[in-house]
Amino acid sequence: MSEQTRRTALITGASAGIGKALAEVFAQHGFDLVLTARREDRLQALADDLSARYGVRTHCIVADLARQGEAEKICEHLAAAGLAIDALVNNAGYGVPGNYRATTWRQQEDFIQVMVTAVCELTHRLLPGMVERRYGRIVNIASVAGLTPAPAGHTLYGASKAFMIKFTQALAQETRKHGVHATAVCPGFTHSEFHDVTGTREQMRRMPSWMWLTAEQVAREAYDAVMRGDMIYVNGWVYKVVVVLARLLPERLALALIRGNASKYRRTET
Fold it and tell me: What structural domains and CATH numbers belong to the chain?
């Protein structure tokens, strides 16, 4: 991109996994980057690497989106630095394993803050500038879990992803006429630190290799999907088939099939 057309992407949860891969894809396409996550050392190392390899400008903001008011602070930081955001990637996320009643409310409250509230707030605060400039790209990293019946365990995960998908659909239809594309990206099992954080790495080892996606594949397809203007994009042929079957099968049968396999990848302590 020329100096006149340089654009800037803000990516949350950028220090590892899909977020890190998305940062690289946007850098490859000439976007300057604002990277945010909790781990400053990883953020800065990534920023330095991408700047050196792709010649893009990078800016790091250390933030914990589980804290109320953190999204507002990010936007205040952007304003103070004179940074206009052309692409927003809401990628930060995690899971709370176990049954709902076995968790604390604080765990669930923090989860909702990261997975729902922060996504909506960052989008709400940054969208007016995109509309005014008549260019914007919003990528919401959802999940195939938001498109299929929900088994026991990780109780709010599928619900939060279903919310993100519906939110993105409505947003896309509101903003398309203003040059803003919004896309909900729905991967399935993806190699990342997600399962280490939730403590389900051992369960995940039972899953066959053909069910796994790479973070790089998800990131490339996410970028292409939002640039095309897709509202919902499901990654990988396996998960495209899963979503179609979930829609076609009777709900009770679909739920029974998912419930029968859920123990392989979900903790459901009583």
Answer: 3-262 (3.40.50.720)
Total-model pTM: 0.89
User: Does 157 participate in catalysis according to the annotation?
Assistant: yes
Per-residue tens of pLDDT for the chain, all 270 residues: 555 578 999 999 999 999 999 999 999 999 999 999 999 999 999 999 999 999 999 999 999 999 999 999 999 999 999 999 999 999 999 999 999 999 999 999 999 999 999 999 999 999 999 999 999 999 999 999 999 988 888 999 999 999 999 999 999 999 999 999 999 999 999 976 554 454 444 555 566 676 789 999 999 999 999 999 999 999 999 999 999 988 888 877 777 776 656 555 555 554
Q: Give the chain as a 3 state SS string.
A: CCHHHCCEEEEECCCCHHHHHHHHHHHHCCCEEEEEECCHHHHHHHHHHHHHHHCCCEEEEECCCCCCCHHHHHHHHHHHCCCCCCEEEECCCCCCCCCHHHCCHHHHHHHHHHHHHHHHHHHHHHHHHHHHHCCEEEEEECCHHHCCCCCCCCCCHHHHHHHHHHHHHHHHHHHHHHCEEEEEEECCCECCCHHHHCCCHHHHCCCCHHHCECHHHHHHHHHHHHHHCCCEEECCHHHHHHHHHHHHCCHHHHHHHHHHHHCCCCCCCC
Active-site residue identified among 94, 157, 223, 265 = 157
